[in-house]
Amino acid sequence: MRLRRRQCIPSCSSHHRVDEDGVYWRRKKSREELAWSRNSTHIISQLARCFTNAMVGPRSWIGGIFSRSGNRRFGSDKFIDYPLNPVQQEERLQRLQERLNVPFDETCIDHQEALKELWYAAFPNVALSGLISEQWKEMGWQGPNPSTDFRGCGFISLENLLFFSRNYPTCFHRLLFKQGGKRAIWEYPFAVAGINVSFMLIQMLDLYSEKPRCIPGINFLKLLEEDETAFDTLYCISFALMDAQWLAMRASYMEFNEVLRVTRTQLERELSLEDIHRIEDLPAYNLLNQ
């Protein structure tokens, strides 16, 4: 898998000029890191709020970001009509779409228990003081009440995070605690980023339509026919791929949307491959076992 890197220094025939630019950017970064260290609590709160506002705002806004991701190269703008397999594809797609329409309800006992389970999956040895607590910020939620962050994507985004923690706990904790690779001072907030990944997948696969009509969405239905948990597994793959892209691009918080765009493009490319018959055949699946 080829990961795209951002070029931080413009091309120049003079090595001396490149060295000067390098010194300038290193000094600039040092000043930013110093400012970050003095204002970290405030910045983290603002960063999480920035990501969450993208989710709870109009869907056309975030959808517009993804629609400009260059997906024409992979045929996702070519709408194709095709019959569904009534036994597997249609029924499983319908059940998945029903999940999309379930809002998070903070008064629902099942939803409360699911949220508690997520906490203890993340921090098994730390007692949770309540469903509304400043502790939630440690996981990357916008504020003390994580239920407000689910407005943009609903209960399925919590289900995705839980599936990740249950089935790939090592990878889940690696991303949660930002382990591995050279990390930015201004990192993405884990939980809110996870909601963004859920929403990105729903848009990319065209799941709000009666049936997907783009090549990645059509090929996804073939995977869903083989495995009903294909969407949840694809979520885990996507989150791990987003983190890998983040590291490869040496990104910081201002580049989160760009990282997500590149992640979507890579997923569309992989879902358009002809030799993908199972979710495990996706090249990025290997990231879950690193």
Could you walk me through the main structural features you see in this protein, from its secondary elements to its overall organization?
- The structure is a single chain.
- The chain has 290 residues and is mainly alpha-helical.
- It has helices spanning 15-38, 40-56, 59-67, 89-100, 109-122, 155-167, 169-176, 190-204, 215-226, 230-248, 256-271.
- Helix 6 (155-167) crosses helix 8 (190-204) and helix 10 crosses helix 11 (256-271).
- The two termini are 14 Å apart.
- Mean pLDDT is 80; it is low at 1-26, 31-48 and 50-77.
Please provide a brief summary of the model.
With 290 residues, the protein is mainly α. It is 55% helix and 0% strand. The longest helix is centred in the first third of the chain and has 24 residues, at 15-38.
- From the N-terminal CA to the C-terminal CA, the straight-line distance is 14 Å
Number of strands: 0
Largest β sheet strand count, sense and barrel closure: none
User: Measured on Cα atoms, how large is the radius of gyration?
Assistant: 20 Å
H-E order = HHHHHHHHHHH
Form type: globular
Number of helices: 11
Coarse structural class: mainly alpha
Helix content: 40-55%
* Percentage of residues in strands: under 5%
Residue runs with pLDDT of under 50 for 5 or more positions: 1-26, 31-48, 50-77
Global mean pLDDT: 80
